[in-house]
Each structure stands twice: as structure tokens, then as C-alpha cells.
Amino acid sequence: MHWQLLQPVLLGIGLLLLALAALPRPKILTRLSFDLCLALLGLAAATTLIEAGARLVGFDFRGLEAARRRLPPFYQRPMAPTGEAFFRRPGPMSWRGQVIRTCLQTLGWPTDDYQNEPVITVRYDAFGFRNEPRPDEWEVAVAGDSFTELGYLSYEQLFTSRLSDHTGWRVLNLGVSHTGPLTHLHYLEAYGLRPATRHTVIVFYEGNDFDDLDRESYALSMVRTKGRYEPEEFRPQPSFLGALADWISRPDPPSPPDSLFTDAVWSGPAGEVALTFENTAPASVSLDPGTIEAFKQFLVRYAELGRRRAVRVWLAYMPCKARVLHGQARLTAEGEANLSGWEPTDLPTFVARHCTDAGVRFLDLTPALVATLVNDQQLPYNPRYDSHLNAHGAEIVSRALAAALGPDRSHSRAR
């Protein structure tokens, strides 16, 4: 790609030099062409030196590491390899600040909605997971994506921490944003099982986990056929010419918005709250047959893990914000355009049926989140930009999990 972009430029320079050499010219043009040739040769030599030097020292013209450091860990992609084709966060590490507001500042977006966001310290254990500290034994291990990591809430507010408070069990958090079901299963197999473990939970987010499943299935196929998988967004750019071609071909970035997007307005006890919806759930009929088969195989492997290690395996269904707010908020014109007439789909029923067939216990978190919105008049999600659970939503999830897992107290131990 890089050479394709640069070839016309190099060809044009070569033709110019040939034309200058072939044409009869007075002395002054001879001198000018000689100087031009020297300048072009000097430029070529300098470019060669920069190219060779950058490759030798491994300099990254993309500046991936610098860009990552500007973002809180929650918004970074995990990059520490684990298993066949999966990634986790490096650890141990910690970060302090206003998580969502810092992300918006980095993007150049308005931060007014999160001006008063609490300053927290986010700590990650030696394996890159949110456990303070990581226990030696635990009764429950919970794996999931950003809805489990919840990297903008304090450790005490995580639903895994609150589940521990409600039940007396020690609970391990294995949540990492930008991950999907196969990664979560790997986390449980590699990091989530101890002699005391009695329950494992995978939190399945309807908004993008089927897409993540496709991506992870592709990554595994690449490893098994070609021996490696390296995501494009992880690759540094050590080539000066490649970076120049990237810069030439890169479209101009869109200008930051003057205000955060508003898809809907919810009338709460304190007045109207502007909302942003992000992902929505697909209908089961729109899923590719290959995706459905991959999901079935994932559930079979998960159920087999439970039988092999004598643990109860659960899949907790995390609804998207649009499902929970459906019929309870007034869509804006912007929201009408973004949602394109979306209605709540049959996906919870579809997932529940396949869990039952595979022998995986199923818990739909939707009713509990809808109930707190309708009955308690409390919003369980962050309002605009970020569409994850807020502290109240995390508390509701912890209670739902405690109620589902709670009856079996035969192995309960104080933390």
C-alpha cells in the first residue's frame, strides 16, 4: 500500500531527471540541473538514513504507546498476549483521575456532563484485572467486557465487589473492555478457577458480543492456520516512508462536536436527562449461521468447563441501554435517525434457549434494570457519551446476581 502511493512520486522524479539529462541546455540550466540532482540525491540519502535508523531502533511513527498513555486504562485495548489469540491488560498498574472526563478531553470533546465526575484511583492486579487485592481463593469468578471492568467506578462500587458484600463470598473480577465471549472463557480457564470456586459467570453484552465472537473466531483460525494473529491496531509503524504514505492517504479527522450527542430525553425526579444510546441488539434472524454455530460451540465448551471443574456456570445477559430505556424516554430527531426504527429484539430469548440446550444457567439482567428505572425512577446507566452502568446500575446487577447465585450457600465463606 505504501509503495503504491509513493511509486507515482518516485517515477515522476526519475522521469524529470532523465529529461534533464537528455535535453540540450545552456550552461546555467546545466548548473541548475546539477544542483537539483545533488539535492535529490541528498534527500534520497537522508530518507534512507532515517528509514534505516528508525527500523533499527524500532521507532514507532504511529506513536501508539504515547496515544495509549493519554487514555485511562478502561478505554485502552488490552495488549498483553494470553492463550492462543487473546489479550489482557498488563499488570500490576494503577491510574488516578476522572476517567470519562479525561477520555473526552483527549478526544477534544465537550466535558461539561462529567465536570463533577469523582476522581478515583483504579488499580489492576498482576494479571491486569480489577482486584484490590487479588484473593488467594474465591467462590465466584466473573468474566466479561467493559460492563464487568467498569473502569470509571471505584473498586467498592463494582458489581463484583457489591456481590461479595451481599453474599459473603470472595468474588474475582475478570472484566476487560474490548473483549468477547471466547476471551472471557479463556480468562476463566487460565485465571478464574481455584479449589474454592463454586460459581463462574460470563457477562454477555447484547450490544456487541456477537461481533466480538466473530472477531475472536477469526483470530483463532488465523493462529491455527498461519501460526499467528496480530491485530492491525496493535502494529507499530517503524517505516518512515510507510508513515509518510499513511499521512498522505489519511482522511482529515472529523471536527469534535460542540456538544455530546443526544439520542433521547428521560424525565427523572430531578428533571429531564439527556441520553446517548450506543450499541443496539440484533435480531436472531439477522445473525450469520457461522456466528450462531460459534456461539453454540462456545456454550458447549463453557458447560464442559463446569462439568470438568465441578462449578456452576452462568451466563448473565447484559442489555443495551436502548432496550432498558425503550418506551421510557422520548427520542430526539437525532435519536430517530441513529436508531433507524430499532425495536427490542428477541435476542434474550434466543440466547436463553441456547444456554438451556447447552446446560449453562441463564440470568437475564434486563428485568432488574427496567424495574429500577420504572419503579424507583433511578437511571442505571451513565447519561451521555458513555453508555455503561453507573454506580446504581452496578448495585442493581449485584443484587440480581446475589439472588440468582445465593440459594446455594453450602460453600459460602466470609471474605
Could you characterize what this model shows?
- The structure is a single chain.
- Helix 1 (2-22) packs across helix 9, helix 6 (159-167) crosses helix 15 (391-405) and helix 8 crosses helix 10 (289-309).
- A five-stranded parallel beta sheet has the order 6-5-7-10-12, with helices on both faces.
- The chain is 46% helix and 13% strand.
- The protein is built from 15 helices and twelve strands.
- It has helices at residues 2-22, 27-57, 64-70, 99-107, 146-149, 159-167, 181-191, 209-226, 240-249, 289-309, 321-325, 333-339, 347-358, 366-374, 391-405, and strands at residues 80-82, 86-88, 93-97, 120-124, 140-144, 171-175, 199-205, 264-268, 271-275, 312-318, 330-331, 361-364.
- The chain has two domains: 2-56; 133-240 and 253-405, SGNH hydrolase (Rossmann fold).
- Strand 8 and strand 9 form a beta hairpin.
- Mean pLDDT is 86; it is low at 409-415.
- The chain is globular.
- By secondary structure, it is an alpha/beta fold.
- The longest helix has 31 residues, at 27-57.
